[in-house]
């Protein structure tokens, strides 16, 4: 059968376009059940014995959830107990349009064989497809389509079982939909009603997401926040310039403050400061919000106080003392201020943290404190609070009513004991959204069959570079060697320099399960003592690892240079290489420095190192910035894998050598892809910061009578190079750490959508990420270092180390201990009256230890930590 839909669409040019869509209907679409012997054409998905113990449904049954149940109760549907579920095409299409995360999760559940979830294409079945009636809304039509499909299933199964006991249960939280389904003769329950009926599974009740009606029942009647504007008024206000749209970033150090970064280019104002709970108006970190700008006379400076939410667990704290708590900062640094008037898009996710038990005995409502200080505390209902004490748990937000001090949410799962190494690693991976489950059989099925070798066909289409003195230089213990280099002198007196990257694309075909999984992971993540691979180990540590003395496929960027590191010619090619040495940075440096060594690899390294120094000097002359952030390296116990020693990383010339050629390859590739694909090259730029970003850096330098010039990257680089203090060599490093905080975030962009390609930090006119060298760190890696630092200090007692004050606040100081790479907050014991007793509260979760008073005149206080 064929149905067609015809409609007209207005084009951007103002014309009218007639569109005809054909819709095919069939009567041979399988129901997916084991009980059906007629329409089955493949392995059944839905089980005949679909039993689950329930006070409501004592018979075997299949579940059909409507769209809102899937959207809001996805944590319930993912539970192993919930099986034999029919996901209608109507529901799946709505989910796809409304929530990408929920769509991915339900698709994953459908593909999980043990779950027995079946996707029924009701929109293409002759007996379940329905037309939208005149005057019927799209939502009402879809609700009717769900009821029609559920009725068809009920009748179909009854026929196949001769009126047997196998039933279909529709789950909906929509009252109108439930009433109409009952009139239709369907078995229908609210999701909460059904879940509470399940016998012997009380933990599932905790995972129920609260519906709006339920949320109103557990909150007070007093309005604590202004009403959010409807989306129509928000869109009109943004269009007229009355409102601004941006992304909300909560302040990690002050829960009463945040900043909205304006998304639209061309706006005079790039960011708006928000202060006070009512002006934050229920925005959560990363939400896209609409803000109303205050007049200039109401603009203020950022707060100068460190403030954490420590209100009682059992009460809704009101904002009576908000203004007193904020302690406005230096009035000479005024920021545009405003208030949130509406939420355009929520970017909530499940959050990891710990339960703060209510002090009221037998209470079921408790506050959850997220590990990320930028997220507000969340109120949940649970009957297992005693069992969850001291555990890391995951919680999802359901909503934030205007009469509730905190958002309402529900328990998702228990991750394990707080402080346990495996648990904390799981937390940091989840918090930083790092995919880390084992690779699925579908992904692994696309790996090459072993034994594998390079074929004659490969050699015909690739440059044979196996004779070159290629070597790799990496951190100790590296097994996934993804880049290698070579340098040799040519007959014409010039030098040939090559960067060779493992050709992973040879083993991954576009669009298959392996490609999709690699795209989802995006990069390999390096934690302390653990690696989360982007591709399976057979590729990452074997076939795509440029190990020494084995032939490997590569993609090579080769330059002809003169001895002044000036590029004469650039060449790109797929290649076959055979690395002659896999070296650590220390081993490569030793070869360069050892005058008795003169083999080909050592000569190549010396040539690379000499050219790298010239390249770096040239970048520095153009204004490339050398910033700083303290990094530490751990020595692990071979049996327990716990850190037994840590020290600040010492960078060698070979670190810089590798970095320079990775940068040069990225720049060369950026220029090449732009020349070839001028409208669609994927590039990366680093915008220059607005002058106000440098306020903290300029102020810090002035404390030592030094001037920082910010007219250009070159001026800033020169100022930092000249900012030295006698008898205080670390002062320059501190300034460079502050300068890092002043920088903007680098972004990817399409060349056809922007004309400004400049990379401020690298002083390069064009740049991309052809190579991201493995020492580039992500936030998850930093969190792993922080946790292992905490493990190192466990049971160490008092350690006396040198620390430096980075920032001074009204009630605290921010300090850095370079040896351990620790940056944390030292609170005054009394927040209103500074006390000689200090508390060191590191940014590592769970670390809070006393330190003695520092000498007032000491510029570099000794802190016991």
Automatic annotation (TrEMBL):
<keyword id="KW-0539">Nucleus</keyword>
<dbReference type="GO" id="GO:0006364">
    <property type="term" value="P:rRNA processing"/>
</dbReference>
<dbReference type="Pfam" id="PF17216">
    <property type="entry name" value="Rrp44_CSD1"/>
</dbReference>
<dbReference type="InterPro" id="IPR001900">
    <property type="entry name" value="RNase_II/R"/>
</dbReference>
<dbReference type="GO" id="GO:0004519">
    <property type="term" value="F:endonuclease activity"/>
</dbReference>
<keyword id="KW-0255">Endonuclease</keyword>
<dbReference type="InterPro" id="IPR050180">
    <property type="entry name" value="RNR_Ribonuclease"/>
</dbReference>
<dbReference type="InterPro" id="IPR033771">
    <property type="entry name" value="Rrp44_CSD1"/>
</dbReference>
<dbReference type="InterPro" id="IPR033770">
    <property type="entry name" value="RRP44_S1"/>
</dbReference>
<protein>
    <recommendedName>
        <fullName>Protein DIS3 homolog</fullName>
    </recommendedName>
</protein>
<dbReference type="GO" id="GO:0071031">
    <property type="term" value="P:nuclear mRNA surveillance of mRNA 3'-end processing"/>
</dbReference>
<dbReference type="InterPro" id="IPR002716">
    <property type="entry name" value="PIN_dom"/>
</dbReference>
<dbReference type="Pfam" id="PF00773">
    <property type="entry name" value="RNB"/>
</dbReference>
<dbReference type="GO" id="GO:0005730">
    <property type="term" value="C:nucleolus"/>
</dbReference>
<dbReference type="GO" id="GO:0000176">
    <property type="term" value="C:nuclear exosome (RNase complex)"/>
</dbReference>
<keyword id="KW-0540">Nuclease</keyword>
<keyword id="KW-0378">Hydrolase</keyword>
<keyword id="KW-0269">Exonuclease</keyword>
<dbReference type="Pfam" id="PF17215">
    <property type="entry name" value="Rrp44_S1"/>
</dbReference>
<keyword id="KW-0694">RNA-binding</keyword>
<dbReference type="GO" id="GO:0016075">
    <property type="term" value="P:rRNA catabolic process"/>
</dbReference>
<keyword id="KW-0963">Cytoplasm</keyword>
<dbReference type="InterPro" id="IPR029060">
    <property type="entry name" value="PIN-like_dom_sf"/>
</dbReference>
<keyword id="KW-0698">rRNA processing</keyword>
<dbReference type="GO" id="GO:0071034">
    <property type="term" value="P:CUT catabolic process"/>
</dbReference>
<dbReference type="InterPro" id="IPR012340">
    <property type="entry name" value="NA-bd_OB-fold"/>
</dbReference>
<feature type="domain" description="PIN">
    <location>
        <begin position="61"/>
        <end position="179"/>
    </location>
</feature>
<dbReference type="GO" id="GO:0003723">
    <property type="term" value="F:RNA binding"/>
</dbReference>
<dbReference type="Pfam" id="PF17849">
    <property type="entry name" value="OB_Dis3"/>
</dbReference>
<dbReference type="GO" id="GO:0000177">
    <property type="term" value="C:cytoplasmic exosome (RNase complex)"/>
</dbReference>
<dbReference type="Pfam" id="PF13638">
    <property type="entry name" value="PIN_4"/>
</dbReference>
<keyword id="KW-0271">Exosome</keyword>
<dbReference type="GO" id="GO:0000175">
    <property type="term" value="F:3'-5'-RNA exonuclease activity"/>
</dbReference>
<dbReference type="InterPro" id="IPR041505">
    <property type="entry name" value="Dis3_CSD2"/>
</dbReference>
<comment type="similarity">
    <text>Belongs to the RNR ribonuclease family.</text>
</comment>
<feature type="domain" description="RNB">
    <location>
        <begin position="462"/>
        <end position="782"/>
    </location>
</feature>
């Amino acid at each position: 059968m064929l149905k067609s839909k015809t409609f007209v669409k207005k084009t951007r040019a103002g014309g009218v376009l007639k569109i005809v869509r054909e819709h095919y209907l069939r009567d041979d679409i399988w129901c997916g059940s084991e009980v059906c012997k007629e329409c089955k054409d493949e392995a059944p998905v839905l089980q005949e014995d679909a039993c689950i113990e329930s006070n409501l449904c004592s018979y075997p049954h299949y579940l059909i959830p409507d769209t809102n149940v899937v959207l809001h109760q996805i944590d319930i549907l993912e539970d192993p107990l919930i099986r034999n579920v029919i996901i209608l095409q109507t529901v799946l299409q709505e989910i796809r349009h409304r929530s990408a995360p929920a769509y991915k999760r339900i698709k994953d559940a459908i593909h999980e064989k043990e779950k027995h979830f079946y996707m029924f294409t009701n929109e293409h079945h002759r007996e379940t497809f329905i037309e939208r009636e005149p005057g019927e809304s799209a939502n009402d039509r879809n609700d009717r389509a769900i009821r029609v499909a559920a009725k068809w299933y009920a009748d179909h199964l009854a026929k196949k079982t001769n009126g047997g006991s196998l039933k279909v249960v529709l789950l909906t939280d929509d009252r109108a939909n439930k009433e109409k389904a009952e009139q239709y003769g369907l078995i229908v329950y609210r999701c909460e009603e059904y879940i509470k009926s399940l016998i012997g599974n009380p933990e599932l009740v905790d995972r129920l997401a609260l519906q709006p009606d339920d949320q109103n029942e557990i909150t007070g009647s007093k309005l604590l926040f202004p009403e959010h504007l409807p989306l129509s008024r928000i869109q009109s206000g943004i269009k007229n310039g009355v409102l601004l749209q941006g992304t909300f970033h909560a302040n990690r150090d002050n829960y009463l403050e945040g900043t909205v970064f304006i998304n639209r280019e061309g706006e005079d104002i790039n960011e708006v400061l928000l202060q006070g709970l009512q002006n934050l108006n229920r925005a959560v970190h990363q939400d896209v919000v609409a803000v109303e700008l205050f007049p200039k006379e109401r603009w203020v400076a950022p707060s100068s106080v460190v403030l954490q939410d420590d209100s009682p667990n059992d009460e809704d704290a009101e904002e009576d003392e908000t203004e007193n708590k904020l302690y406005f900062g230096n009035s000479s640094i005024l920021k545009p201020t405003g208030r949130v008037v509406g939420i355009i898009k929520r970017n909530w996710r499940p959050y990891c943290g710990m339960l703060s038990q209510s002090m009221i005995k037998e209470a079921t409502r408790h506050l959850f404190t997220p590990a990320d200080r930028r997220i507000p505390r969340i109120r949940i209902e649970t009957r297992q609070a005693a069992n969850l004490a001291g555990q890391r748990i995951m919680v999802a937000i359901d909503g934030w009513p205007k009469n509730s001090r905190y958002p309402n949410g529900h328990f998702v799962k228990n991750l394990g004991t707080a402080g346990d190494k495996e648990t904390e690693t799981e937390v940091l991976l989840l918090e930083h959204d790092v995919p880390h489950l084992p690779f699925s059989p579908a992904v692994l099925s696309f790996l090459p069959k072993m034994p594998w070798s390079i074929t004659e066909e490969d050699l015909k289409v690739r440059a044979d570079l196996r004779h070159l003195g290629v070597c790799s230089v990496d951190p100790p213990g590296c097994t996934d060697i993804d880049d290698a280099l070579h340098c040799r002198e040519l007959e014409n007196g010039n030098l040939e320099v090559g960067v060779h990257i493992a050709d992973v694309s040879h083993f991954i075909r576009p669009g298959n399960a392996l490609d999709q999984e690699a795209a989802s992971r995006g990069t390999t993540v390096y934690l302390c003592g653990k690696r989360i691979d982007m591709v399976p180990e057979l590729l990452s540590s074997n076939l795509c690892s440029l190990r020494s003395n084995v032939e490997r496929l590569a993609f090579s960027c080769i330059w002809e240079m003169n001895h002044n590191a000036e590029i004469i010619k650039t060449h790109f090619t797929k290649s076959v290489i055979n690395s002659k040495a896999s070296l650590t940075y220390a081993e490569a440096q030793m070869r360069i420095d050892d005058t008795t060594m003169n083999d080909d690899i050592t000569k190549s390294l010396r040539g690379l190192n000499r050219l790298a120094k010239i390249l770096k000097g040239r970048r520095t002359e153009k204004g490339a910035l050398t910033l700083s952030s303290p990094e530490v390296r751990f020595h692990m116990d071979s049996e327990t894998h716990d850190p037994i020693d840590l020290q600040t990383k010492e960078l060698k010339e070979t670190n810089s050598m590798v970095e320079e050629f990775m940068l040069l390859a990225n720049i060369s590739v950026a220029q090449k892809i732009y020349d070839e694909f001028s409208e669609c090259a994927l590039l990366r730029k680093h915008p220059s910061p607005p002058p106000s970003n440098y306020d903290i850096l300029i102020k810090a330098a002035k404390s030592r009578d030094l001037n920082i010039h910010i007219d250009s990257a070159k001026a800033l680089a020169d100022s930092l190079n000249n900012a030295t203090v006698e008898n205080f060599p670390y002062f320059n490093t501190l300034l460079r750490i502050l300068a890092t905080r002043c920088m903007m975030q680098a972004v990817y962009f399409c060349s056809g959508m922007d004309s400004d390609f400049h990379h401020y930090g690298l002083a390069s006119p064009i740049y991309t990420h052809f190579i991201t060298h493995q020492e580039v760190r992500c936030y998850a890696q930093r969190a792993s270092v922080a946790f292992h630092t905490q493990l190192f200090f466990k049971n160490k007692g008092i350690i006396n180390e040198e620390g430096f004050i980075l920032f001074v606040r009204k009630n605290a100081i921010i300090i850095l201990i370079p040896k351990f790479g620790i940056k944390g907050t030292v609170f005054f014991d009394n927040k209103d009256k500074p006390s000689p007793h200090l508390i060191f509260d590191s940014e590592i979760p769970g670390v809070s230890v006393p330190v003695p008073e520092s000498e007032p005149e000491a510029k570099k206080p000794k802190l016991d930590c």
